[in-house]
Structure formats: structure tokens, C-alpha cells
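C-alpha cells incoming
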């Protein structure tokens, strides 16, 4: 059984990101129980602008809602619609101007000198393939769209969007990748009172020690250790931006997840 201090540690993996205007650091390595992944949230009202500077990190912003325009090299004049995204290496900057009220989720990780600026326009009609994928089956079926795949140059980040079915599981069977990558799940399009559950447990099959995090729009949950399946409540679709950060550039791979043997055939 989990010791009380260990349970409290897992309970601390959940964050509710602010809805107030401005730039907010939500998941910060060292402050949160993680060392590789960071996530910020930018709420930008229509007509307002923000200068995003990456500093020593690589950053990957995804436009969760609204419309925006980028200016400055290399994205001068680039229009952004919902679910469009871009990548910046360290020591880079871009101006973001909100055409409509905008919410950005911004993943960050250590920069190792690998990566160049890139932009990806979201296309819901993209054929199933390397970027648009279907994972799982039955009650675990979900749609995945990579916003930053491993073929796009970057140092440590791999990111994407996931849509589950109504009342179904995502990230099932449960998996972990604690020796190679940390992950954050950042939920959207689930306004309260709609909700889902994000589960965290540390050892194979030991679900009696699961810590359950209720999630809705704006909730972010880290997965620095252990298994982390999610499930939606009836009539609700779990939808989230996920960000993986590898501990080293050579571990920037999407095939390192280890399924829980207790549920691998479920």
C-alpha cells in the first residue's frame, strides 16, 4: 500500500491552470514533481499581444482556442487557427497578437542544440498515417494528432492532441515510460460540470493504490512515474494536449512506452 507521504506526492501531480489573462507558468521542473517537462498557459484577449521568448528552453505552443497572428522571424504574418502549433529552439522569440480571445498551451524542455523553427497547421482531414493516427480499440479507441512528431527536428519534446470517445478510456492499456520520458496531460473542451478522471499508480496491477485526479478544462496532470490511464464520465469526451519530454535526446522516441503486463491484453 502507498505510504501517506507517497500518496500525497501523487496527489500533487494535478494542477489547475489559471483562466485570467496573461502568461502563466503552470508546471515548472523542480517546483512540480518533475525534472524534464514544463507547461505554460497563455491567455491572450482579442487585440492584445505578447512577446514569447524561449530563453534556455525549446518551446512548443499549441493554440487551444481562438485565432492569432505571429510576427517576427521566421513566422512573420503567419495566421494561426485552432490547434495550429509551432516550435522554437532556445534563445528565440516571436510576437503573438490575438485576433480573437486565445488560449495557448506551451510545452517546454531543455534544449540540446537540436531543433529549428517549424509551424504545423492543423488539418482534421489529414489521412491516417504518421501524423494523424488511431490508437486502441473498442472502449479504448482514441484519435491522435501529432503537433510535434519525432521526424520534426527538436531536442526532447514530442507532443500531440488526443480525443477519446464518449465515456471511454484513453491511454489504455495503461503504460509507463519513467526511465526515458516525462509526460503532461493538459485537458481542454471539458468545461465544468463535465469531467473525466486521470489515474496514477506506480506498480503493475496494483490499482488498489491508484490516485484519482478529477479533470476538466484547464486541468494539467504530470506523469513522472508509473502508469496513467484516463477515462471520461458518461456523455463526456476526454480531450487533451499531451507533451512528452525525454531525459536525453536519444530517448526522444514514441516507442518507449511499456504496457502494464496486468492489462496488456485487455
Amino acid at each position: 500500500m502507498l505510504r501517506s507521504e507517497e500518496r500525497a506526492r501523487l496527489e500533487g501531480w494535478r494542477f489547475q491552470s489559471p483562466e485570467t489573462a496573461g502568461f502563466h507558468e503552470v508546471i515548472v521542473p523542480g517546483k512540480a514533481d518533475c525534472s524534464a517537462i514544463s507547461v505554460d498557459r497563455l491567455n491572450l484577449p482579442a487585440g492584445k499581444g505578447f512577446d514569447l521568448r524561449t530563453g534556455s528552453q525549446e518551446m512548443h505552443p499549441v493554440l487551444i482556442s481562438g485565432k492569432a497572428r505571429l510576427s517576427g522571424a521566421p513566422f512573420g504574418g503567419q495566421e494561426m487557427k485552432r490547434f495550429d502549433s509551432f516550435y522554437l529552439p532556445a534563445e528565440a522569440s516571436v510576437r503573438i497578437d490575438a485576433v480573437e480571445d486565445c488560449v495557448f498551451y506551451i510545452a517546454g524542455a531543455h534544449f540540446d542544440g537540436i531543433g529549428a523553427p517549424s509551424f504545423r497547421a492543423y488539418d482534421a482531414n489529414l489521412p491516417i498515417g504518421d501524423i494523424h493516427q488511431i490508437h486502441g480499440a473498442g472502449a479504448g479507441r482514441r484519435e491522435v494528432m501529432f503537433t510535434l512528431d519525432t521526424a520534426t527536428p527538436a531536442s526532447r519534446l514530442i507532443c500531440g492532441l488526443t480525443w477519446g470517445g464518449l465515456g471511454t478510456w484513453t491511454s489504455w492499456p495503461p503504460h509507463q515510460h519513467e526511465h526515458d520520458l516525462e509526460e503532461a496531460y493538459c485537458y481542454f473542451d471539458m468545461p465544468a460540470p463535465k469531467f473525466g478522471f486521470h489515474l496514477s499508480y506506480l506498480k503493475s496491477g496494483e490499482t488498489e493504490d491508484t490516485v484519482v485526479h478529477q479533470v476538466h478544462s484547464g486541468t494539467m496532470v504530470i506523469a513522472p512515474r508509473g502508469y496513467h490511464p484516463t477515462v471520461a464520465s458518461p456523455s463526456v469526451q476526454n480531450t487533451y494536449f499531451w507533451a512528452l519530454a525525454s531525459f536525453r535526446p536519444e530517448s526522444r522516441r514514441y516507442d518507449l512506452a511499456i504496457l502494464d503486463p496486468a492489462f496488456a491484453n485487455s
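note: The helical segments are 4-11.
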